[in-house]
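Quick check before the chapter quiz. The format below is the same one you will see on the exam, so make sure you can read both the input and the output lines.
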Amino acid sequence: MNRSIRRTVGGLGGALLGVVISLAGTTEVAAAGSEGESRAAVPIATAATPVPKGFKANSITWLSSELGWVLGTVPCGSKVCSEVIGTKDGAKTWSVVGALKAPIPNTSLGGRGVTEIRFATPEIGWAFGPDLYRTTDGGRTWAHEAIPGHGEQVLDLAANATEAYAVVSDCTHYCSKQFTFWRTTSLTKNEWAQISLSLPNAITADVTVYGQTVYLLDPYGQIRPHEDKLYASTDGLHFSTRPVPCDKNPLPAGLIQVVPSSATDVTLLCDGDAGLSEADKYAYRSTNTGKTDRAAGTMGLPGIQAQLAVSPSGNVAVSSQSDGSFIYINDNHKTSWTQVIGDSDGGVGWNDIVYVTDSEAWVVYAPAEGFLSQGQLWETTDGGRHWSVTTP
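Here is the expected output.
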């Protein structure tokens, strides 16, 4: 699964259009975190509750090609409420799973609440960014929890079936404090242990997990090119640095995302030299957890901010946005890319582009947290060549 580069410190991502970013990590486990407060949300749904009219998606996550969840908003009286819908049959049917007592804040304005959803097992998952909520019953009920280390924001979170990882900022806005990195093996409790790494302050951070292989990126993008920090672990506990392939390019470019497709295979996305609605976007592949890599080609210039998805066999899709919304794919496992979507929509953008099989992938178009939100779910069943809107 891929992880989107979306959650920013203090909303700076919207202010710094054209600055794109990545992940980071390092060494060993230190002190344990403490129990967080528990504030359970009241479930509003039964297993058969249909998705209400007006549902707008913001984040999507899958455990398999059959089992997925979407975090979004629904009108509730004069307000907008946060709701989770789910499918157990590969999107043939969707139903309301539960609700969260937390808003989905606007991307540019910031504020408390949650923007992302991820699951570790069919029962255990988290909603986060900036706040932290956890479910242990498949999304029916959600408990508000203290952020690891009593931080201010969860910038990113990823999990496998036995452990979860979180990147935390101690500030609500950009500040000089370093990020902290946390791990838990107690998926049903709010108990986290810090992994001690050097994570200088950046705009955002990203963590991705494939089995016991974990990647952590602390990105600087075009603010301070050639200073991105990338770390990897093959046992989920001990981290070491990896080279940043974007540094090979003489133009200022940042590593914005790292997506594994096996325990050893990983694809890396670089983005930089942004101009008017355009940026250089190019990829690298590695078969040894990022120790060495090879070029995987350059996509078209339209679009600045970008997100990456990789299928089990190595097909690659990149969603991008600037004054429009674009999708590029590389399904030849070589270096040529094809632009399959180019929409002059004002840049409403995407979130959580992700493959669930080699042929099927999903993305949220115009997420609910945006000013021009439509919250649509888009699906492809031919590896990314053609996309269509799916109504839950």
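If your answer matched, good. Residues 11 and 281 are 23 Å apart (CA to CA).
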